[in-house]
Design brief:
6-stranded mixed beta sheet, alpha/beta, 9 helices, globular
């Protein structure tokens, strides 16, 4: 193969579309490997109560709009069906379920991609693995002693499971607030703790605000630090639902607790609350452990990229990583990665490829809407 694409979410499908448009043939010149059981990327695993109407910032894939979707239908169904139609329309021939276990140096300047269905030896790699497979669980003293249920957003089943229970939600992002507002209607009581004061944003979120937010994320990636999500720097949009929840006291935030007890959580100032459930809405980390043999990480723990290209290995491109983690950013990153890879395949040096492709930083060209 000339190119292996790992992941068939928004970023991977965008890359596959642009590879096909550039004249590369699936199964001959490139292959897309996806470990999910069905089309839909991470969306297929979202909880049923996250309907399409609640999703913020879903941008269409290149070449095909998503139209006529029922806003009351679960987003997992809407976007899963959309991705399925997209894959068939453009004949992308996604291979699934395929697990990629490692990417390492191969022979004759090629990479070696080790998978559950065998090995591939591509000249270039587009990594589009996202974050869903790496939920972040913070560690606190006493965590193993808690006698109730602990779960993460990645396993959130919807509000009905929490009927009549006292629930503590940890995390100040969009998922945390959505979980709280749903659970509050059925739970015996809810509590909300965050490390920092939540930032609620009023007013429109336009192109200028999007560029500024992406620039903050990009700066970390440029310095080789693990990327923050774009949402972490946009703040939470102050919708009517959030205003209502704040007025009802549902979003009265408590500072982060100091330890977990068998029956709940406690603070060093003597406060404590007893709960039946701790729901960790604490986000995700980039799923890039399979790239470890290539030694791409910087001392700060992240992978430094120029455009989409890994600085330590020009054959490797990361799309949907850091500043391109939004849906529109993933689309543009897929196009930029393919443009650069085409020149790599023709033998142009990296500096010339960047200049010819017009690849500037994602902050210079991407706009973003806060994700839901």
């Amino acid at each position: 193969m000339d190119v292996v694409v790992i992941g068939a979410g928004q970023a991977g499908l965008s890359a596959a579309f642009h590879l096909r448009r550039a004249g590369l043939e699936p199964d001959r010149d490139f292959v897309v490997l996806d470990h999910a059981p069905a089309p839909g990327g991470a969306w297929q695993f979202r909880w049923p109560s996250l309907t399409y109407g609640k999703v913020h910032g879903m941008h269409a894939l290149p070449g095909m709009e998503l139209t006529g979707a029922d806003p009351a239908r679960p987003s997992s169904e809407v976007i899963g069906a959309y991705f399925d139609t997209y894959e068939r329309t453009f004949d992308l021939r996604i291979r699934r379920p395929v697990d990629v276990t490692a990417v390492r140096e191969g022979d004759d300047g090629r990479l070696l991609v080790e998978t559950s269905e065998g090995r591939y030896a591509p000249r270039a790699l587009i990594n589009a693995t996202g974050t869903w497979d790496r939920p972040f669980w913070p560690r606190y003293p006493g965590q193993e002693t808690f006698r109730g249920l602990q779960l993460h957003t990645a396993g959130y089943p919807g509000p009905a499971e929490f009927t009549g229970k006292r629930v503590l939600v940890v995390g100040g992002g969009a998922s945390g607030t959505q979980h709280l507002m749903e659970i509050a209607d059925v739970a015996a009581g809810t509590f909300w703790v965050t490390r920092r004061e939540p930032v609620f944003r009023e007013g429109p979120f336009g192109e200028a605000e999007g560029r500024a937010a992406v620039a903050l994320v990009e700066e970390r990636v440029r310095r080789g630090l693990p990327p923050q999500s774009v949402v972490s720097v946009t703040g939470l949009p102050l919708s009517d639902a959030i205003r209502s929840a704040r007025a009802r006291g549902i979003l009265d935030r408590l500072p982060m607790f100091d330890r977990i007890t068998p029956t709940g959580v406690a603070w060093d100032d003597g406060r404590s609350v007893d709960v039946d459930v701790i729901l960790w809405a604490t986000g995700f980390r980039a799923a890039i452990d399979h790239l470890s043999p290539l030694r791409l990480r910087e001392p700060g723990g992240g992978i430094r990229v120029e455009g989409t290209r890994a600085v330590r290995d020009e054959r490797v491109h990361l799309v949907g990583y850091g500043p391109s983690a939004s849906t529109i950013g993933a689309n543009r990153a897929g196009r930029a990665a393919v443009s650069d890879i085409r020149r790599l395949l023709r033998g142009a040096p990296a500096a010339a490829r960047t200049q010819l492709a017009g690849v500037t930083s994602p902050a210079a060209r991407a706009t973003v809407a806060p994700a839901g």
